[in-house]
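Annex B.
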Amino acid sequence: CVLCGRTDDCPEKYGEKRTYVEHNLTVHYYCLKCNICKKKGASIGCVAPKCKRSYHFPCGIQKECIFQFMEDFRSYCWEHKPVQKFPDKESRGTSQCTICLDLVEQLPMYTVLKSPCCKNAWFHRECLQYQALSAGIFFFRCTVCNNKDKFQKEMLRMGIHIPEKDASWELEENAYQDLLQCYQHCDIKRCLCKKGRDYNEPDSKWEIKRCQCCGSRGTHLACSSMKSWEQNWECMECRSIFAKSGNYGKQKKRSLATSEKTDGTTCLLEEPSPKYPRQSPQSQRNFLLQTPKIMCQNNLSPCSHLELPASNRVTMSLSPLMSNRNWSLRKKHLRKQRREVSNILKELKLQVNTKTTRLNINAENIWNSALKGFRQRNFSPTNTIEIKFTNCKTRSKPDTSAASKHRFFQLLMLHLQNSSLFEGSSAKNLSLDFQAVKENLYFEAGKMIAVSLVHGGPSPGFFSKTLFNCLVYGPENVKPALEDVADVDVAQTIKMIKYANSLSSLRSTIHNCYEFLAAAGCLRPVTALCDKNMLVNDILIHHVIKRIISPLESFRQGLKTLGVLEKMQMHPDAFSSIFCHKPERLSAETICDLFTIHSSSDVNKVEGADFWMGYLQDVESGESVVTLEDILLFVTGSFSIPPIGFDPEPTIKFLHIRYPIGNRLPNCLELPI
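G2E3 ligase: predicted structure tokens.
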């Protein structure tokens, strides 16, 4: 190379090595001489025709060259660079840079740029570049008129680099944390809550509702005589604004509401808020209840027969013999499904490696310690999990056996069943807990259930069929039932609509719960008694499914851990047996099938099996203080058989020992000969 004197042919270091035979000339591409600093390595050239200037990027900036970060990424030297044109009539002088607010001269200079969309908007080039780097391509725009397209096009032409990224304030962690703080204070003149104005207990009469307009005022439900399902409330300030604008002109008002205290005295309360200030509720009710057939749309189904309450239906009971036979067949079918699940989970467990992750668990605070463990940086669902139970008062030795893992997952599933993430009595659905949504707890719960199943823990066993079907088939393909509604008030409202026996009583019921139906988006024309069926269906879908669609999706994502949800969708019947049903009660037959007898040479295997089966039958019939669950716990550390089964499989050995020994590591029960 005639410039650097090296013979190296190293494109990544010196650029392409070119030889021009006609000129007897060899150069590296990067070894061009800079026209500014006169040193080698200038790789940028001016694109103007016949201009041979080349320069380093820093040297070009210093010499006020223009580099365009768009299209062909052109570069212009100080002589051929583009300039902004200003009308001759335009006044010259000084103005404020609309970014830094310092003075800027209104002159066509390299360091000064003018907005193409605003006549009197001037900027320092340096200020614009800082603004562009911070705002990114999505938010970089004129600071005066907010124009984006025209402004960006001109700034790119004049050499402002606008990176293709999100704004820096969008990328900052917890940037909007302050906005997540909810106002929680009762501002009613006379607050009835004995625990104070700041006390807030969700799903009770002491839950605080915020003003739907400003969000900066609140009230306890009881303090404004509101029901739990009423969503709309406006504070006095907002209502006064609406009143002045005339929006409340047609509303029926009360000045004060009275409420009886528990001691018999009467106190004055702020009037409960009108729910729909924009339109008279009476006119909406009349419209929906009396609109003729032209309002019937969406392919409403023809009128069906009136559904009677369960007490009025004629039912036929099965004979005891038939009932027992069906129950026996059902149990047999469930066992078959659980064997299928066991094989599927064993297949999924092949993903688990020998690398261990230890979780320090406080049994008295199972949820927080489990959450902390699952969120720790080194936790991976594919690692082998070891559990160390700790106690705040006493330090215990590490217990990393399978028994401690069984206990951990049992406690965790029990906590989830009784947590605020689920609602219902025995068959549960997801609830709507805004705090849990914000903290991503539904995802963590789904993840914990998936990990429990694959790592040998118990199944939840408390899902409703509706929840399970939403997870497997998608919420859009599921039809909920009245039994899925956990809220007593909502269930009562649905029953009143469902069992209305005349059109007038149906309209009266809708009139009474009008605000609830409006808030749920379930108002529909009612022209015939059969319209109640569609209305009931709308309410059920809203309350059971649409209301919790965000928690449901988050929960599904958690269940995808280790491929569990995918297998659930492939084998729905099999997985339903462990998600929607508790483990079957242990029987002598189940325990006998679970254990394999390994006898020594001086023990007759048949005699050993006879003794073992006879003993289990005695326990099952209640002739011993020991239960079958005690035996399983003694050997394996678990009260029930996990869906995946035990690893290793439980065995029995007859040995020359004095007392029975439960060896939990190999799941072996050692019995005296």
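The longest strand covers residues 356-362. Confidence is low (pLDDT under 50) at residues 248-322, 392-396. Further annotation is deferred to the next reporting cycle.
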